[in-house]
């Protein structure tokens, strides 16, 4: 979902080519980014008080690790520590504690214009009103780089895709329950209830991606598995 949300958030042709290339040929370093903390943050979403004490211990351990390491390992430990502390600060200052949050289900799938989209949430959300249970979900955005790009558009795309993917499930989704958390910005954004133009944009973008997919070659520094 990160790749398609980036794609939807930009009209720059060179940037769109880069995003398709990154989706088709993922690098090992990028796959490993934040791997040390993703499961811990996902689990914390559905724990009492968002597991604040446990995450503070994790952040302290990462800080200690950064002092011992050098190079990429040091930088990644610092990035992870920053993300954990930002998570603690963000979730504690929002109304998320009022929601019914549970561990995330398996990834959801959307098929548009020849493109298969995998929509992965970090936690599931539900809410009961008058005997009716509605669904939603939470996705975390790890974007701490100096060039964060059009983050607001990416968050809107993430929540819009999540709401769309949940349609047709056992519970009716609600836009206000489909949330994206920007850890770097300390912001929680909800899906829009107006989605016709967004879904047209997704369909058009997927059509463009499908038409270009076979023409995209790997980058010069590609370090993934054999693609031929």
TrEMBL record:
<protein>
    <submittedName>
        <fullName>Uncharacterized protein</fullName>
    </submittedName>
</protein>
């Amino acid at each position: 979902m990160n790749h398609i949300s980036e794609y939807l958030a930009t009209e720059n042709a060179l940037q769109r080519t880069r995003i398709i290339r990154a989706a088709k040929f993922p690098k090992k370093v990028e796959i490993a980014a934040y791997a040390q903390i993703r499961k811990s943050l996902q689990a914390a979403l559905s724990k009492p008080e968002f597991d604040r004490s446990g995450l503070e211990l994790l952040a302290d351990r990462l800080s200690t690790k950064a002092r011992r390491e050098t190079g990429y390992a040091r930088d990644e430990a610092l990035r992870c520590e920053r993300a954990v502390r930002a998570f603690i600060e963000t979730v504690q200052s929002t109304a998320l504690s009022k929601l019914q949050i549970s561990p995330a289900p398996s990834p959801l799938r959307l098929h548009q214009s020849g493109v298969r989209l995998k929509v992965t949430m970090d936690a599931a959300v539900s809410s009961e009103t008058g005997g009716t249970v509605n669904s939603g979900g939470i996705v975390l955005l790890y974007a701490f780089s100096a060039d964060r790009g059009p983050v607001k558009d990416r968050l809107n795309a993430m929540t819009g895709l999540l709401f769309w993917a949940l349609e047709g499930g056992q519970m009716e989704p609600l836009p206000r329950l489909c949330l994206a958390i920007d850890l770097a910005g300390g912001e929680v954004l909800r899906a829009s209830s107006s989605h016709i133009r967004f879904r047209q944009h997704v369909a058009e973008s997927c059509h463009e991606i499908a038409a270009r997919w076979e023409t995209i070659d790997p980058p010069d520094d590609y370090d993934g598995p054999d693609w031929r």
